[in-house]
Amino acid sequence: MVPQEVFKDTGAQAKFVAGPTTEIARVGLGVAVRAGAAKPDIGTPDAMRETLLKAQSIATVPASAAGAQVLRAFERLGIAEAVKAKTKALASPAQMVEAVAKGEAELGVFLSNVLTAPGLELVGPFPTELQQHVVYMAAVAADSKEAVAAKAFIDYLKTPEAAAIIKAKGMEPANR
Q1: Nearest to residue 32, comparing CAs of 97, 128, 127?
Q2: pTM for this entry
Q3: Between the CA atoms of 19, 23, 29 and 30, what dihedral angle is there, to the nearest 10 degrees?
Q4: Which of 21, 23, 82, 121 falls between 20 and 30 A from 157, CA-CA?
Q5: Cα(30)–Cα(4) distance, rounded to whole angstroms?
């Protein structure tokens, strides 16, 4: 299971069995604070803009696909330059979670499912007008030693039972 963008790369496509891919889940961007901290207003683009401008520090992972989406949202809000100095660019989602949980960053801005980690409280998703999703697709690896089992697992991921688990983990199951 990989982000949909992976299948746009010819080299990456060669690592999977030719044929259709299956959308499994999608996850949007959100904002989190340290557990127990006051939750700011992010319900509208204007409220989110003000919250980001007032924040002392913002942690994200800009070197990732989701991080690039976060930076584009800052641009759409017209605050990219204004928040640049207070944005903590971290190398991994785990580092971002740790920075917010320890109070080293006031806000964590990333994929909502990552922001449900212990030590954080999800403020909520981005406003609809700013929301972007990472879509996760599944396919059988070309070098799979258990292609039948892999296909069965992908089929399982499309069931209502799996959808409930996907939802519990902070993602939206694919529409079926």
Answers
A1: 97
A2: 0.82
A3: -150
A4: 121
A5: 19
Q: Give SS3 for 137.
A: strand
Give the span between the Cα atoms of 45 and 76, in whole angstroms.
10
- Quick one: pLDDT band at residue 1, thresholds 50, 70, 90? confident
The predicted pLDDT at position 168 comes to 86
* SS3 at position 4: helix
Place of tokens 């991994």: 92
- Residues 40 and 115 sit within 8 Å (Cβ to Cβ): no
The string of DSSP letters for 19-63 reads S--EEEEEEEEEEEEETTSPPPP-SSHHHHHHHHHH-S-EEE-TT
